């Protein structure tokens, strides 16, 4: 499946107080008084909308599936529209995505969660809505990522069911129903979501990680620098991601890159948090010399440290079909919150054997 070659046309739409009816709590009198002729038109509109959406698949999945906590980290959902029809599929995508997509989150007892405050605010103010026209050719897909917490208040632990709707002609009153000339929204399949209680914290207020396999709280222990590195590499060999991240100072690691450092200094607190989350995700796609590449075997050769920082040198071997690569990793550690954490690393290629 190819990614869509997007054809965009910037334009805008005025949206006013009619959007106060966004959650179905208001209905204009003229709609309530619709006659049989209007019902017939709605039936035809529904049939036409079904024909328009024929062959169009709309799916949602977790962008970075992990443990999610109440009132905590973003819950990123990847939205994908795939055109399996023989024709070009066109729809409008608003710059403010709340006018293009909506999420319905319910408990196992079918109780709908309340909309997020930011969603209500955006949809009820009088404003210009800028959008682009997206063209998805036959056999292509178009995707984007949204934070579920921007749409729904998720402040309690439990099991939930998530469903999304995309509005080809933008979100406005009546688009959930069959309205003449307005395509009905695309609906996704339901996605199961588990929310854990808020993270426990240390006495210093530092959040504790959770072991995905057992649900046990992972606590940073006062390990020696070489033990920290050994713990990290072993966790990566076993694909235990939460343990792998436990002793990584992600903020310090990403700021070692000059370009990222400049961007970091210009970002807000929220933007810096997004940068850290993105870097965390990048580590799951290891490069040739990345810290998350899995070695076949390794040997800790040298450890040096004082009261503030240190280095651990590790010989790592990476087996290929016809040879074995040798690389020397030098990990930089610092003493932070009474524990040793990895703040950076460098790699030296030593050839093959």
The domain count comes to 2
Return residue spans where pLDDT drops below 50 for at least 5 consecutive residues: 5-12, 14-43, 45-49, 202-206
> What oligomeric assembly is this protein in?
single chain
Strand content: 25-35%
Instruction: Give the name of the CATH superfamily of the largest domain.
Output: Intracellular proteinase inhibitor BsuPI
Mean pLDDT: 80
- CATH architecture field of the largest domain: Sandwich
Span of the ends, CA to CA = 40 Å
CATH class of the largest domain: Mainly Beta
Radius of gyration: 25 Å
Structural class: alpha+beta
| CA-based shape | elongated
Give the number of helices.
Answer: 8
List the helices and strands in order: EEHHEEEEEHEEEEEEEHHHHHEEEE
Largest sheet: 5 strands, mixed
Explain what you see.
With 353 residues, the protein is of the alpha+beta class. The protein folds into two domains: 2-196, Immunoglobulin-like (Sandwich); 209-248 and 283-352, Nuclear Transport Factor 2, Chain: A, CATH 3.10.450. It has eight helices and 18 strands. The strands form five sheets. Strands 4, 7, 10, 11 and 12 form a five-stranded mixed sheet that branches. It is elongated, with a radius of gyration of 25 Å. It starts with a strand and ends with a strand. Mean pLDDT is 80; it is low at 5-12, 14-43, 45-49 and 202-206.
């Amino acid at each position: 499946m190819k990614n869509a070659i997007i054809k965009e046309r910037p334009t805008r739409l005025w949206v006013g107080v009619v959007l106060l009816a966004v959650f179905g709590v208001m209905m204009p009198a003229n709609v309530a008084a619709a006659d049989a002729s209007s019902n017939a038109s709605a039936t035809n509109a529904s049939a036409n909308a079904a024909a328009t959406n024929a062959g169009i698949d709309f799916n949602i999945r977790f962008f970075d599936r992990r443990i999610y906590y109440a009132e905590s980290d973003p819950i990123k959902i990847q939205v994908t529209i795939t055109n399996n029809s023989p024709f070009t599929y066109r729809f409008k995508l608003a710059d403010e995505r709340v006018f293009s997509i909506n999420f319905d989150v319910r408990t196992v007892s079918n109780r709908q969660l309340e909309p997020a405050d930011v969603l209500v605010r955006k949809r009820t103010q009088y404003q210009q809505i800028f959008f682009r026209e997206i063209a998805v050719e036959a056999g292509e897909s178009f995707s984007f990522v949204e934070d579920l917490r921007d749409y729904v208040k998720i402040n309690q632990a439990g099991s939930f069911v998530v469903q999304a709707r995309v509005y080809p002609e933008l979100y406005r009153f009546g688009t959930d129903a069959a309205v003449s000339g307005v395509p009905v929204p695309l609906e996704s399949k339901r996605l199961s979501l588990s929310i854990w209680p808020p993270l426990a914290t240390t006495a210093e207020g530092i959040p504790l990680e959770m072991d995905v396999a057992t649900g046990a709280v992972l606590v940073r222990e006062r390990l020696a620098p070489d033990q920290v590195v050994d713990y990290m590499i072993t966790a990566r060999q076993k694909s235990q991601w939460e343990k792998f991240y436990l002793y990584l100072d992600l903020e310090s690691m990403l700021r070692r890159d000059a370009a990222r450092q400049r961007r970091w200094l210009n970002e807000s607190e929220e933007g810096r948090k997004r940068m850290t989350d993105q870097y965390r995700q990048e580590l799951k796609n290891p490069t040739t010399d990345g810290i998350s590449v899995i070695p076949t075997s390794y040997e800790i050769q040298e450890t040096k440290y004082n009261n503030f920082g240190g280095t651990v040198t590790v010989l790592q071997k990476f087996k290929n079909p016809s040879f074995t690569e040798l690389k020397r990793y030098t990990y930089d550690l610092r003493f932070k919150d009474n524990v040793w954490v990895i703040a950076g690393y460098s790699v030296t290629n030593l050839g093959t054997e």
